[in-house]
Amino acid sequence: MTNVIRAELYRLLRRRTLVIGGAVAIAFSILAAFSVFAAADSVGPRSVQGGTSLARLAASGGGTESFAVGASFASLLAFVSAIALIGNEFANGTFRSLALREPRRIRLIVGKFIGLLVVLAGLLLLAEVLTFVMSLLAAQWQDVPTGAWFSMAAIGDGFADFGSTFAGLAGWMVFGTFLAVVFRSVPIALAFGVAWAGPFENITVDSWSTGLRVFPGQVLRSVIAGGTTELGFSQAVLRASLYVVVAGVITLAVVARRDITS
Amino acid sequence: MADDITSRNVDDGGMPSRSTADTTSVISARGLTKRFGDRIAVDGLDLDVPRGVVAGFVGPNGAGKTTTMAMLLGLVRPTSGSAYVLGSPIDDASDFSRRVGALIETPAFYPHLTVEQNLHVLAITGRHGGSDIPGLLRLVGLAERGDDTYRTYSLGMKQRLGIAAALIGDPELLVLDEPSNGLDPQGMREMRELIERIARDDRTVLVSSHMLSELEQICDWLVLIDTGRSVYQGPAADFLADGAALAVAPQRSDDLDGLLRLVIGTGLTAQRNAERVIIPLRGRDRSDVAAQVNAAAFAAGLVLVEIAPVRDSLEQRYLSLVGTPAAEVASTNGATS
């Protein structure tokens, strides 16, 4: 499978991709840091609905808090990117070309996905570092103390925020890959996925709060946030894992069994 | 399968002779069948392609050529039957994928990558890390455009790039599905020359095409299918020889009917065609028939000004075999006469 991962990284790590990724990371860090600090309440823990408190921002994890809170809004980007990247492989026939070189399709799709995850991890790391720097500026602007951000505990909080964000976005990418493989059409997969994860889930939870603990998108938001008032972190990880495993197994079964005719 | 597959004949095709091929089947299939719902795309196909030949895979639209190739390469799962490629069952194409290059349907590459980058992606995926990508681009005449992105390529260049991609790893077997599709006459000629170049290295090539006149010039083995079934497979020379005939012309056109009666009177089959009498050889020796006709004409006082061998084209032979209306093939075969 390493051959597929290397090929995917060779394809993705082009100057164009890096420039776009870097620009997105910079834009994300500025938006996340200043909007989170501007919107922070004086009290209160994280919620699926977003936002955090000034107390949390002043704590050891405050330097990367904006990254974690903002990342839940970046999940749509990861979701859409996975649909576009994997869906185009099927729609444009490049999956067929690659399958001629690597006929073990499970290895092919998993290798490509791992390649995407490696790039995602790199971009997230860049975004986290940049958000930390932007948060220092935002903290001065909002008079939030930053002394605790440079403690040993802050390093642990930074890793935790990175881990939960990465896990959550990886989950979104599994869902995106699932839709791309099932529909084999980027427009249809995008229409279905965005309609579900956007309007359907969010409108429904306004009148049915249980949806915050049940819907896949809401569960992943809780994972990215490191747990919320509506759904604790461990429960969120458990439920998200279940959804991801189901989506992953269906995806692999479809890829392995379906004829490659386009 | 024939025990001895003789090379293409210089007289027949005007091409250089190739050595006698190995008799081992590079591709073999028995009862290969593919159903898509109620429709049978490939219907119990038996197939043998010997090593070292350029095999033309001929059939009308929807005959099952692409589906057969896709099954052989592991892209499409057969409904029933079995097949072997390079001695390995097609159930696990990874056993032979590194030794096979293919261009199936249209070429597919990443539009934003340069063509060199695209070939590198395929080389890495297929574990052909040491592939000579610039050399492949030179072979297909794209060396000057290696740094251009795929999206800037014309259709003909994309097809040639598809061939270059198929050649990654120096495969023993090349499977090309309609490589001339959409090309203009010049592009088709270049593609034919490219396939001839590729085939010189003792490589087996299975190439499908509607362009029967193109295939006729490069193939030494033929597989003809119709509605998913094999209607002929064997040496191209044998297939075309079945359509060989003698054209005989008298000095005076008034003698044509008399000559026709004379030839038929000697026990041969003949028909009048414009200013000639055509005598199908049907396996008989050309010289013997010519001598027989010449002697009969001399005895009858007829002066012959022409006794010439003629041969049906691949298209004519194919149509006579499958009975496809000429208009249907002509519509997909702009290059044939």
Task: Give the tags.
heterodimer; A: 262 residues; mainly alpha; 11 helices; globular; B: 337 residues; alpha/beta; Rossmann fold; Alpha-Beta Plaits; 2 domains; 6-stranded mixed β-sheet; 4-stranded antiparallel β-sheet; 12 helices; 26% strand; elongated; disordered N terminus; disordered C terminus
Task: Kindly describe this structure.
The complex is a heterodimer of chains A (about 260) and B (about 325). With about 260 residues, chain A is an all-alpha fold. Chain A has one domain (about 1-255). Chain A is about 80% helix and about 0% strand. In chain A, helix 1 (about 1-10) packs across helix 6 (about 105-140). Chain A is globular and about 60 Å long. Chain B is of the alpha/beta class and about 325 residues long. In chain B, the strands form 3 sheets. Chain B has a 6-stranded mixed sheet, sandwiched between helices. In chain B, helix 6 (about 185-200) packs parallel to helix 7 (about 210-220). The two termini of chain B are about 30 Å apart. At the A-B interface, helix 1 and helix 5 of A face helix 3 of B.
The CATH fourth-level homologous superfamily of the largest domain in chain B? P-loop containing nucleotide triphosphate hydrolases
The assigned structural class of chain A equals: mainly alpha
Order of helices and strands of chain A: HHHHHHHHHHH
Shape of chain B: elongated
Radius of gyration of chain A: 19 Å
- The number of helical segments of chain A is 11
Secondary-structure blueprint:
The complex is a heterodimer of chains A (262) and B (337).
Chain A: H1 2-12, H2 15-39, H3 54-58, H4 62-91, H5 94-101, H6 105-142, H7 152-183, H8 186-207, H9 211-214, H10 216-224, H11 233-257
Chain B: H1 10-13, E1 25-36, E2 39-50, E3 54-58, H2 65-72, E4 80-85, E5 88-89, E6 100-103, H3 115-125, H4 133-139, H5 155-166, E7 173-177, H6 185-199, E8 204-208, H7 212-218, E9 221-226, E10 229-235, H8 236-241, E11 244-250, H9 256-265, E12 271-273, E13 276-280, H10 286-299, E14 304-311, H11 314-322, H12 326-331
Parallel strand pairs in B: 3-8, 3-9, 6-7, 7-8
Antiparallel strand pairs in B: 1-2, 1-4, 4-5, 9-10, 11-13, 11-14, 12-13
Helix pairs in contact in B: 6-7
